[in-house]
Amino acid sequence: MTSVAIHPEKLKDVIAQALGDKAREVRVALGEVTVVVPAARYLEAMRTLRDAPGCRFEQLIDLCGMDYSAYGDRAPEGPRYGVVSHLLSVSLNQRVRVKVLCPEDDFPMVASVADLWNSAVWFEREAFDLYGIVFDGHNDLRRILTDYGFIGHPFRKDFPLSGHVEMRYDAQQRRVVYEPVSIEPRENTPRIIREDKYGGLH
């Protein structure tokens, strides 16, 4: 029998009490509790969310990197990179969103939570591959989606749409070669063309 989900405002109080000073902020956003934790307390806070009696978030259902450089509400000198996780408690029928910001933009790094939840292994590799976020303590941190010779991190806001290099098979050398991108960057503006009386409109 599934337990009834606790109201977000009540869950917010339960989580805030469990985390104490390990949380920078606990609020309800978009109908879900959001916890912001400092990078120095991230691993400790995540362990508490997994183990505390009123929390018991047994599953990490998502973890992704973020590049906040183009966010309108970001402070000009605020941290650029962050990690957002979604935790699920099957036993208590509740969810929480956890956000941590990387202290350094030049070398973004936070602790790995792979020892707490096995599902984090691939999620963290993806965030490393696409954003360049390093997860301290991850025992197999390497690219997972891009090619071995790929340069850069394609989900960063300043990554060029055409990439940095292109690859092709060279018949004379009988191997794949990498060369600088030869495509000129261009911007396409989509046009919407509809037939007369499309969808009953005149």
User: What would CATH call the architecture of the domain at 8-145?
Assistant: 2-Layer Sandwich
Per DSSP E runs of 2 or more residues, the count of β-strands stands at: 9
Outline the biggest β-sheet. Answer: 5 strands, mixed
Distance between the termini: 54 Å
CATH level 4 superfamily of the domain at 8-145: NADH:ubiquinone oxidoreductase Nqo5 subunit
Mean pLDDT: 89
CATH class of the domain at 8-145, named Alpha Beta
Which structural class should the secondary elements be placed in? alpha/beta
How big is the Rg? Answer: 22 Å
Unreliable spans are none
Number of helical regions = 3
Order of helices and strands: HEEHEEEEHEEE
Give the overall form.
globular
- CATH fold field value of the domain at 8-145: Beta Polymerase, domain 2
Q: How are the strands ordered across the major sheet? A: 1-2-5-4-3
* Helix fraction bin: 10-25%
Strand content: 25-35%
